[in-house]
Amino acid sequence: MIDVVPAGPFRVNTLVVHLEGPFVFIVDPAGSDFSRDNYKLSQFLEQQNLKVVLVLLTHGHFDHIGGLKKIAADFPEAPVLIHEKDSDFIGPDSKILQERSLKLMGFEEFLPYVSDLPAPDAFLSDGKSLWDCLASIKGKSFSSYGPGVKKALSLWQVMSTPGHSPGSVCLYNKEERTLISGDTVFYQSYGRTDLPGGDESTIIKSLKKIYHNLPKETLVYPGHDYCGFMLQDNL
To answer: Which of 16, 42, 156, 208 sits in a 20 to 30 Å window from 172, CA-based?
Structure first.
């Protein structure tokens, strides 16, 4: 099950992905004090008595990470994962790259909310499961979550889908036929490529990878707008 918590100034679909029991992982925490909804995700998690295993970023653009500081503070044991090629969007020097995008958008006032962010604990790698990515973190054990959580995380596979940004990823669950597409696939559309690191020909290759390799009946949860459509609706 996936809960959608729209948040942030650009109404990102922050996702709460259920694993087993109270355990979940978070995709793209977007709420911020700027948009007056920084409380929204934490409030939802508290009301549902949910425990966050990890925080995952489909890419590093400002609108998808506005709530990263708060969620990391609320759940300090939950690792933050992002693709290595987008890792400079977060961390203590995040202001440098974020400022380039925000200037192009004429939205520099948002810069304080995406500066000095938590650094990634691990990287998302193409073809690996989320459990594999977690297991790469040295000095940490996640066995206390139990075999059910391990199995659930093992079902989610990372797909490298650059183009919207160099390190954009999707997550695919073959058993549930579900795709978390970030800003790569939207309903009858796809992500913009005019921000730093974006590339039109590269995202077209990523889209072909998705449409050629995944079942048409795949359920899609994108980073914005309409959620829960079938991949075949875009064909």
So the answer is: 42
Q: Is the dihedral of CA 105, 70, 139, 161 positive or negative?
A: negative
3-state secondary structure of 51: strand
Helix (H) or strand (E) holding 221: strand 219-222
Say which amino acid occupies 167: G
What angle is formed at CA 125 by the lines to CA 101 and CA 13, rounded to 5 degrees?
50
| Strand ranges (E), 98-204 | 122-124, 156-160, 169-173, 178-182, 185-186, 189-190
| Euclidean distance between CA atoms 111 and 80, whole angstroms | 20
* Residue pLDDT, tens place only, 2-18: 999 999 999 999 999 99
Cβ atoms of 117 and 68 within 8 Å: the answer is yes
Name every residue whose Cβ is closer than 8 Å to that of residue 201 and which is 6 or more positions away in sequence: 163
Nearest to 166 by CA among 130, 207, 136, 195: 195
**What is the dihedral sign for C-alpha 125, 226, 51, 39?**
positive
